[in-house]
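Section 5.1 Outputs to date
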Amino acid sequence: MNQPKRVTVLMGGASAERDVSLRSGHAAAAALETAGYAVTLVDAGRDPGELVRAVVETQPEVVFNALHGRFGEDGCVQGVLNLLGVPYTHSGLLASAAAMDKAFARCLFESAGIPVAKGRVVRRGEASPLPRPHVVKPLNEGSSVGVYILQDGDARDPLGDWPFDSDEVLVEEFIPGREITVAVMGDRALGALEITSDRGFYDYEAKYAPGGSRHIMPAPLPQSDYAEACRLALAAHRALGCRGVSRADLRYDDTKAGETPRLIMLEVNTQPGMTATSLVPEIAAHAGISFPELVRWMVENARCDA
């Protein structure tokens, strides 16, 4: 009988999403052990030398990348693993970098015919060009870190009260309606889920605070709109060049009486949360794929760009 594959799980890191990554890493490791793999956990910091040493010492056949945010999700770790020639889960360097840069990803979506909200990059000292309300986003953070809405009557400069060291942000029109997320696994969309929150906006606290949000699976959309949400998610996955598992976040605007509802692509997460109760595993479970089966598939389909 063959020995189980050795898998090193990278988690933690030094980004604003460290706590979320630790949860993803521990949950994925437990599921991988259930699936029969020999697992080693590595808390990856910012030092690439230490990361290389840890990966080499653990001698993995596959790295399960459970990092979120900068360094782990933006192509940096992917580049290191490419140089080492170690297969890893999720997207490669180019797709990871493209998806993490929200302004660049918007350009790719538009060129692929995927609808996006009106928006532009605003630099420090510039006036915001959009009427309120509109959304302010950092260009390269995940998990809605730092995202906020400028409401009517709010005259703040988008960079005037900003918690990050940045000279530019993305501002987008606020799309009313409902929050829809779609999981993509390889070459198929697994399904669409609706997220509701009493906070009125699906920000970081709504995502991770206890009781901050509620999930409705499957999303209660008309059949044609449900299918369109899945189609757009797969199209965005392909436009970015993603592989493995990704999650697309969309807005479904059905607020205007007498008008056809519209779906707007917000972003694609190339390293979505991977706890047993995260969105992608929840959607996968509804499609008949258990959490251990999901992570096993991810390991079996891991590769590097070397």
